[in-house]
Structure formats: structure tokens, C-alpha cells
Design a protein that fits this description.
The complex is a heterodimer. Chain A is of the alpha+beta class. Helices cover 11% and strands 17% of the residues of chain A. Chain B has helices at residues 28-42, 61-64, 77-87, 99-105, 107-116, 161-168, 181-193, 219-229, 261-277, and strands at 49-53, 68-71, 92-98, 121-126, 129-130, 136-137, 172-177, 198-203, 230-232, 248-255.
């Protein structure tokens, strides 16, 4: 961290980092892999399970890394994934 | 991860028709997704929206959107849309169709609708071939591309759709690939807010029918081609925006204002009626 940014921001207690909740509609996925490949934080990976369409739907590796850019929602051709901000006061 | 719930955009779609029939890796779903995102962001009233589509894979989009929609005969979506727009100019009329439908079979409808500046909005999915009928060579197939009817390489020069639209007089012309989803959504939002004839070409992957003959077997490989080849150049010369395997120029090309056909028509009718009654 650069020297000039050493101090803790004054509003650090008021502002919390948004936490994401990733919903995957497994049986709608056709396994094109766009969400996995184009996630900027590499939050998703291909799972081992086989869904109703005979493909491997994505699986969440680490939800904490998600920055809610929602690119997976926008790029999914099958409306099979979406991201919501987690609504919680504290402790999640 | 939580239990699966309903997708937030499902209210804009006919739930009974989803999941759609398009192949894995096809870009049509992304175009539908971007369109629905744009509807959601603008809070468009679905009772004021008419979606018209022609024949082709993307033609099914009209059936998936939960608005009033026409699935018309081959090449004639613009002719139908012109009728809807002139009868009810207060409705938002959007044509979603493919390159073969709009530019091969319906080529004349397109250029004359653009020339008259009828206030309809055209979104064209360009997948470089006739996907639904088995991958024959189409008006946008690049030179030397392999298709089922050009097994030794295509020798027909392709249409440059943005140049054609701009030269025909369209008031808004843009081209994006399905990888540029954010720009595409912003462009569709702009398209829906405009008055005159507006056109967006969306370069879309077709891995099953076109890509497999051209060393791009999956949707991801085609999307990687778009990522490597596309160059964003807003308001550049559309004449120089040919699609080649090395370069796909994307961006907005034309953004002008002109009086629309239905506006001039209704003004003329009002004037003549007034003269008649005097």
C-alpha cells in the first residue's frame, strides 16, 4: 500500500463491502462456459455433476471474491445465473 | 449458494417457452438477454411494445418475449413492422431478425425502410450463415470461409451491414459483438429511445453450424475470436468496417436526427383533412 494511504478511512465502519449471493439455475444451464471464462474474479468453475441437459453447470468457488459486476448474468444466454447483493446487517 | 429461485428477468419472458431451443454457445440468447436487460432498465411498458421477427433461429425471440409479437414470413418482418407502425405510431416496434432474413430475402424491405426513415428499430443477429437450414453460404459469410455449400471456401464478397444501413439513410447505426454485452445493452437502450429508423448489428457466435467448419468448435472459441479481433472505434467510417477474420470494427457509426415517415405522413394527412373541411 502506498505511504499516503496508511490511515484507516474515517467512514470504514459505516460502509461495508457488498457481499454477493450467486444463484445458479442448474437445470437451465447448457454448459457454454461463458460465465466461467469471462468472470473477472474467477469466482466460478465447472462442476462435476451432470444436470438435466447432460452438461456440467458452473459451481461457485468462493463467493467472497465476487464483486457484483453481474457480467455472468448479462452474458448467460440461458438465463441460468444471476447475482444479488446479500441483505444482512452484520455477521455475514 | 442458496436454493435456486426465479430469475429476476423472467417477467419479461414467456415462462412456458423457457428454456429456449438455441444451441449451447449460441449468441441469440445473449441478444435476448441484452434486450430484456434494456427493457428492464428503461421500465418499458410491455403493452406498448411490439416485437416482430422473421424466419431463422433468432426469429424465435419474438415468441420468447412476453410482449405482443409477430413471427412473420421469411424476409418480411420489416414490411409487417411498417404496417404496425403506420397503423399505431404510438407503439414501439422492434424487429429482431437474422442477417439472412433481413439482408438476403428481405434486403429491399430493409433499404427502403431505412430510406423512408420509418420509426422502427431493427436488431440484426449476424451469424455469418443460414444457421437454421444447415449452414449454407449467406450474404454475410466472409471470403474464404467454409460452409456446407462452399466446401472449398467462399468466393462471394460479403455485405458490410453497417455501411449498407448508413448509406440507405438509417439515423442510428451500431455494431457490437455478443461479448460486448454492456455496450450492446446501452446501445439497445439508446435504440429504444429514438424516433427514426435505427439499426444494430450484433455479431453472434454460431459454433454448431458455422464455427465447426471454421476451426471454432465451441461458443467460447468464437467469443475469443471476437475478443481478439474486435476494435472499438465509435463514429468511424462505416465503409471501412468490413468484417474480416483479423478485424471486427465495433461501435456506433451513425447518430443523426431526421423527420420520420409516420410523422410526415400524419402531418400531411392532417393538413389535407383541414383543407378539405374548409
Amino acid at each position: 500500500m502506498p505511504e499516503r494511504l496508511w490511515r484507516t478511512p474515517l467512514d470504514v465502519e459505516k460502509i461495508s463491502r457488498p457481499k454477493a449471493e450467486i444463484y445458479i439455475l442448474k437445470d437451465q444451464c447448457k454448459g457454454c462456459g461463458f460465465c466461467i471464462h469471462y468472470c473477472p474474479k474467477k469466482v466460478l468453475e465447472e462442476s462435476d455433476e451432470i444436470n438435466a441437459r447432460g452438461v456440467h453447470p458452473p459451481r461457485v468457488v468462493d463467493e467472497k471474491n465476487c464483486v457484483l459486476c453481474s457480467f455472468c448474468t448479462a452474458v448467460c444466454p440461458d438465463f441460468a445465473i444471476f447475482v444479488k447483493e446479500k441483505q444482512c446487517k452484520d455477521g455475514c | 449458494m442458496m436454493e435456486a429461485v426465479e430469475h429476476p428477468l423472467l417477467k419479461y419472458l414467456r415462462a412456458a417457452m423457457i428454456p429456449h431451443i438455441w444451441c449451447s454457445g449460441c449468441g441469440n440468447g445473449i441478444i435476448l438477454n441484452a434486450f430484456v436487460h434494456a427493457l428492464d432498465e428503461l421500465q418499458i411498458d410491455l403493452n406498448k411494445l411490439v416485437v416482430v421477427s422473421g424466419i431463422g433461429c433468432i426469429g424465435r425471440a419474438a415468441g420468447y418475449i412476453n410482449a405482443d409479437s409477430f413471427h412473420t414470413t421469411h424476409g418480411r418482418p420489416i414490411a409487417f413492422a411498417t404496417g404496425v407502425k403506420l397503423a399505431k405510431p404510438e407503439l414501439e416496434v422492434v424487429v429482431i431478425s437474422g442477417d439472412g432474413d433481413l439482408f438476403a430475402i428481405g434486403g429491399n424491405h430493409f433499404i427502403h425502410a431505412a430510406r423512408r426513415n420509418i420509426g422502427i428499430k431493427v436488431i440484426c443477429a449476424n451469424n455469418f450463415n443460414y444457421g437454421m437450414t444447415g449452414g449454407q453460404v449467406g450474404p454475410t459469410t466472409p471470403l474464404e470461409a467454409l460452409t456446407t455449400t462452399t466446401p472449398y471456401g467462399n468466393i462471394e464478397h460479403p455485405f458490410n451491414l453497417v455501411h449498407l444501413a448508413a448509406a440507405s439513410g438509417a439515423t442510428y447505426v451500431a455494431r457490437w459483438t455478443t461479448l460486448h454485452v454492456r455496450m450492446l445493452t446501452a446501445s439497445i437502450k439508446k435504440l429504444l429511445q429514438r424516433k427514426g429508423f435505427s439499426f444494430i448489428e450484433v455479431v453472434s457466435p454460431c459454433p454448431e453450424i458455422y464455427g465447426r467448419h471454421n476451426k471454432m468448435r465451441t461458443g467460447l472459441e468464437m467469443m475469443e475470436w471476437f475478443r481478439e479481433a474486435s476494435v472499438i472505434a465509435n463514429f468511424s467510417d462505416p465503409a471501412k468496417a468490413e468484417i474480416t477474420p483479423e478485424k471486427i470494427v465495433v461501435g456506433e457509426f451513425v447518430d443523426i436526427e431526421k423527420p420520420t415517415y409516420e410523422q410526415l405522413l400524419y402531418e400531411k394527412m392532417a393538413k389535407l383533412m383541414k383543407e378539405e373541411s374548409e
